[in-house]
Amino acid sequence: MELTESHTLPVPQQRAWEALNDTAILKACIPGCESIDADGENAYAVALTAAVGPVKARFKGRMQLADIDAPRSYTIQFEGQGGAAGFGKGDARVTLEPAGEDATTLSYTASAQVGGKLAQIGSRLVDGAARKIAAEFFKRFTEQLGGGAGEADAEAQQETSETQAASDAEGAGGDEPQKRKRSWTAWISKS
Fold it and tell me: pTM (2 decimals)?
């Protein structure tokens, strides 16, 4: 499995780097994370619970940081065991680049291998679960950095204006298909 994505973070590069190396922030951002404890120089013991399709398990593993070029990049090497559920191992290359004064672009390329029951459920479910976990991580990470509140407010304002526009159209004798379209758009923006 391979994942490559980029995200814009609402903070300067140095602040993004510090957050990526703060175990308390990472614990709060990684879905299902129970603990991240130092386990040597640039190494961490990690415990988390994850569900991939019908397989749900508690994983214990180790994460090692390598090729560190602060505050620009590092490589994360990871491996974990989930008992009967199987195992996962791989690496991710993470890079930070300034995107203006108060923004940073975080890009990563990750590759992973899974075995045991996880491998038996199929790559589509594993890839889908990995993308979902990554999306949730970046949502939480952006909120931790202070960017989530503004986005939530903007989304709520958009939903309110769409609801008001639909009500205005309905009250003015507006046609039904237009109302449905707005409702569908509001639903999509919540996802």
Answer: 0.73
